[in-house]
Specification:
By secondary structure, the protein is of the alpha+beta class. It contains 17 helices and 40 strands.
Length: about 675
């Protein structure tokens, strides 16, 4: 077995690989850019080598710099993680020439499958179902429009060397095809150094289901069941689960066998993933093969008990796979929620900054439940604008899908993140969504269920009553503590009453709170809610049993109450005495500032293009400018008919959130 492994990556995947290597007794080497000097993967590794500036194209994807680190440390093998150099055949060839093992497939397989155009041709030859499309090279936007019309809208415009949702657009008409072609080409060039584009038919109402394959160098090809990855935003996966709630055993086996047939056609070895589009009738079509470890691999590990990173390392060392197809189980159900540094209230645009608070839920591995958090950040660390916005992958496992979802709800409620925008509220909203609970999902789920974007969650009456009861209970505890601190003599202490009025938004809840040795009881709307908790004033997380069922509320003290975050809702909860509630009703409501005549930068980023100039009259939906952030190009559009009267920034300017880009009249 190898004695030293270099991880040519960063963030949570580098940390993940280090964990398996450590378990196997293998020493690890991290590489890092200027932006990652204090990163978690650097701290976890046995050695670390600096490789350059923050920009990936000057550090993490420069083959010569990684090779220098290999030589400098004497690493015998390199695990590429995903992204960066993981699917670069030149990198695999450079390692082979150096006599260093690449923990991945041979370069020939990367070439065959890494290029989406070539891979579709090979898949068709191997008898794998494929989607209709144009696999040739496309010269310009006008040719893209012509091809799109021949295939028939809607179409998917994709970077041939792409992955992770980068360089990908859906077009429903000529204008979107023209714009999508250019944006995909730009993203592909900056992210992969390869701007080739192809176009294929976009299957409406599709499910995105992928098969995990694992192969060794001795001709053994296995499929480790499937993952459902249909909850996507901008073609980027958000929530994954294993197995799929949609597949039957016959379809699962057919997909698995085709995936292995494709892997065998290119002499594949190591872990890889064959992605399929599946329609409502369970017809499936080859999408692409990722010749690397997938982001969502933990859910497969949780239902099979197989450490994929360990098996990749053993395969690279020439070992045979230690199990057969019949020995691969589906044990229970696993769900993964991707925690992104992005603001769901601003159309999920990237967010950067310092993690002033980062407290994941405790990881557990018990016979009937598991909680796992793969992460690459820590409290006090910086979320940089240079890399992918994903900062953690929260996974739960249970004996069935309903329990896995329930465990995920609680884990999301316990996850504390402050200092940046993040998508925890949205993830919670999905877990409580009726369609998701039924398993009635497609890749259009987010677009269909959140057509106006995510504007937060409004809890139902029963859930609001729980929040009101908990807030009143907490406020009572805090008031008792305050009177004990300020009181001088027992007979002079201010009495803490039982009667409270809790307001959540425009709703009022009269609550009567009583406490005894058995806990606290809140009487609200004719019902009694029994609570038990060891919460003390100042705690930011309130774990409480409500009628015997565990709940978690993120709380922060504000004037006369708390900011409470629970199940995706973010609420200002005020707790008053009855008299103070009367006075509070008389207070005027503060109105927000009018920004309707301004184009504000929705996220920190770099302006790459201006599409208008002063004096232009713009219409609703017209492109105004493009802003690049975290490797994604975002087109900002006009919200209504207006005239541009002032432009405050131009191409090359770096902007912060809410900086004014242009003004209208």
């Amino acid at each position: 077995m190898f004695k030293k492994l270099l991880i040519a990556n960063r963030g949570e995947i580098a940390c993940r690989v280090i964990k398996s290597a450590r378990k196997m007794g293998i020493s690890t080497v991290a590489v890092y850019s200027d932006a990652d000097r204090q990163a978690l993967h650097v701290e976890m590794a046995d050695e670390a080598v600096h490789i350059g500036p923050p920009q990936a194209n000057q550090s993490y994807i420069v083959i010569d710099k990684i090779m220098d680190a290999v030589r400098q440390t004497g690493a015998e093998a390199v695990h590429p993680g995903y992204g960066f150099l993981s699917e670069n055949p030149k990198f695999a060839e450079a390692l082979e020439a150096e006599g260093v093992a690449f923990v991945g497939p041979p370069a020939s397989a990367i070439v065959a499958m890494g290029d989406k155009i070539t891979s579709k041709k090979l898949a068709k030859e191997a008898g794998v179902s494929t989607v209709p499309g144009y696999m040739g090279l496309i010269a310009d936007a006008e040719e893209a429009v012509k091809i799109s019309n021949e295939i028939g809208y809607p179409v998917m415009i994709k970077a041939s060397a792409g992955g992770g949702g980068k360089g990908m657009r859906i077009a429903w008409n000529d204008q979107e095809a023209r714009e999508g072609f250019q944006s995909s080409k730009n993203e592909a060039a900056s992210s992969f150094g390869d701007d080739r584009i192809f176009i294929e038919k976009f299957v409406t109402q599709p499910r995105h289901i992928e098969i995990q394959v694992l192969a060794d160098k001795h001709g053994n090809y296995l499929w480790l069941n499937e993952r459902e990855c249909s909850i996507q935003r901008r073609n980027q996966k958000v929530i994954e689960e294993a197995p799929s709630p949609f597949l039957d055993p016959e379809t699962r086996r057919a997909m698995g066998e085709q995936a292995c047939r494709l892997a065998a056609a290119v002499n594949y070895c190591s872990a890889g993933t064959v992605e399929f589009i599946v329609d409502a009738d369970k017809n499936f079509y080859f999408l692409e093969m990722n010749t690397r470890l997938q982001v969502e691999h933990p859910v497969t590990e949780l239902i099979t008990g197989i450490d994929l990173v360990e098996q990749m390392i053993r395969v690279a060392n020439g070992e045979k796979l230690p199990f057969t197809q019949d020995e691969i189980p589906i044990n229970g159900w696993a769900i993964e929620s991707r925690l992104y540094a992005e603001d769901p209230y601003r159309n999920f645009l990237p967010s950067i900054g310092r993690l002033s608070r980062y407290r994941p839920p405790a990881e557990l591995a018990q016979p009937f439940m598991a909680v796992r958090n793969d992460t690459g950040v820590f409290e006090g660390g910086e979320i940089s604008m240079y890399y992918d916005p994903m900062i953690a992958k929260l996974c739960t496992w249970g004996p069935d899908r309903a329990m896995a979802i329930e465990y995920m709800r609680n884990a999301l409620d316990e996850f504390e993140v402050e200092g940046i925008g993040h998508n925890l509220p949205f993830l919670s909203a999905v877990m409580d969504h009726e369609r998701f609970i039924r398993g009635d999902i497609t890749t259009a789920f987010i677009a269909e269920e959140f057509p106006e974007g995510f504007n937060g969650v409004e809890l139902g009456e029963a859930e609001q009553e729980k929040v009101a009861a908990v807030a009143a209970g907490m406020y009572r505890v805090a008031e008792i503590r305050r009177t004990r601190i300020t009181g001088t003599m027992d007979n002079h202490k201010r009495k803490v009453g039982k009667e409270w009025v809790v307001t959540i938004g425009k709703r009022e809840f009269p609550v009567e709170v009583e406490a005894d040795r058995n806990g606290t009881t809140a009487h609200i709307d004719g019902q009694s809610i029994v609570m038990r908790s060891d919460w003390t004033p100042g705690d930011r997380l309130c774990k409480v049993e409500i009628d015997g069922v565990p709940h978690a509320f993120k709380v922060q003290k504000i004037s006369s109450g708390y900011r409470v975050r629970y199940r995706g809702a973010d609420m200002k909860v005020r707790v008053y005495t009855p008299r103070r509630a009367e006075l509070a009703r008389l207070m005027p409501e503060k109105m927000p500032a009018d920004t309707s005549r301004l184009l504000l930068c929705p996220m920190p980023g770099l302006i790459v293009k201006l599409d208008v100039q002063v004096g232009d009259v713009v219409e609703e939906g017209q492109a105004l400018c493009s802003v690049e952030a975290m490797k994604m190009e975002n087109i900002l559009r006009a919200e209504k008919h207006a005239t541009v009267v002032k432009i405050n920034a131009g191409p090359g300017d770096s902007l912060a959130v809410d900086d004014v880009i242009m003004e209208f009249e």
